[in-house]
Amino acid sequence: MSEEKIYRTDDSRPLVELTHVEKHFGDLHVLKDINLKVAKGEVLVVVGPSGSGKSTMCRTINRLETIDSGDIRIDGKPLPQEGKELARLRAEVGMVFQSFNLFANKTILENVALAPIRVRHMAKKEAEDQAMELLARVGVDSQASKMPAQLSGGQQQRVAIARALAMHPKVMLFDEPTSALDPEMVNEVLDVMIELAHEGMTMICVTHEMGFARRAADRIVFMADGQILEEASPDEFFDHPKSERAKDFLSKILTH
Ligand SMILES: Nc1ncnc2c1ncn2[C@@H]1O[C@H](COP(=O)(O)OP(=O)(O)OP(=O)(O)O)[C@@H](O)[C@H]1O
Ligand SMILES: [Mg+2]
């Protein structure tokens, strides 16, 4: 039996696994011995002060950033260095960023249908049908023929989620998906994320939305200075943070 086959038949292995990951930007040590396992269907929320390495960690998981040393595996497979394998890996990892990075010169429907056609060679009609289904799922199917600039931020961010889902990712990464939104639009995006979580999607979410974290997270990871300082259930983390850094962080974030 090939190694690959053993991986595929093992349901108990983590879907995402980071082992001894190290990363520097020049002299700056941004990820320090990061060890993290995310199980299939788990919702992990990553919190921590600005500059602690949350985005960098996310970006290493779909290899938007390289790492200096250590190992990152998705579904048992090490991250490929480049080429076709890397494109395939990226397709397995959906990512939604803070800024709405839709293609400005394509319609909403085209935004969601494009990657399945180009990367997965899906027939146009099939990709568009799937796109309409996904847009309905995130509640913006009535906007399908519009251009991104004609949509609100909350709607655009829901389209970005639909676009990521169109590739049937094994895991979804969210990096502060609501922090650029007007307050009244935050919940419509969080609601979509909560629904995804309930449907069993494996999710890694960097967010300052502590209500969402409490409600949706299976586990909280607290990062500071490039390290994972705490890993706990939401109740444990919010009610009984252990480190001074986490206590300090929570006192700041929960009081304003
Ligand atoms: N491309 C880069 N080149 C140099 N330094 C970088 C780069 N990207 C990030 N950094 C630095 O790495 C550190 C970690 O940044 P990162 O964006 O991962 O933090 P973060 O926890 O996501 O912060 P925030 O909450 O503000 O988004 C910061 O000091 C940041 O300035
Ligand atoms: Mg960040």
Could you walk me through the main structural features you see in this protein, from its secondary elements to its overall organization?
The protein starts with a helix and ends with a helix. The radius of gyration is 18 Å and the shape is globular. The chain has helices at residues 3-9, 54-61, 83-92, 108-118, 124-137, 153-165, 183-198, 210-216, 234-239, 244-255, and strands at 16-25, 28-38, 43-47, 69-74, 77-78, 93-96, 171-175, 202-206, 219-224, 227-232. It has a single domain, classed as P-loop containing nucleotide triphosphate hydrolases (Rossmann fold). With 256 residues, it is α/β, with parallel strands linked by helices. The protein is built from ten helices and ten strands. Helix 5 crosses helix 6 and helix 6 (153-165) runs parallel beside helix 7 (183-198). The strands form two sheets. Strands 6-7-8-3-9-10 form a six-stranded mixed beta sheet, with helices on both faces. The chain has a four-stranded antiparallel beta sheet with strand order 2-1-4-5, with helices on one face. Adenosine-5'-triphosphate (ATP) is lined by residues 25, 28, 30, 48, 50-56.
Write the layout of secondary structure elements.
Layout: H1 3-9, E1 16-25, E2 28-38, E3 43-47, H2 54-61, E4 69-74, E5 77-78, H3 83-92, E6 93-96, H4 108-118, H5 124-137, H6 153-165, E7 171-175, H7 183-198, E8 202-206, H8 210-216, E9 219-224, E10 227-232, H9 234-239, H10 244-255
Parallel strand pairs: 3-8, 3-9, 6-7, 7-8
Antiparallel strand pairs: 1-2, 1-4, 4-5, 9-10
The protein binds adenosine-5'-triphosphate and magnesium ion.
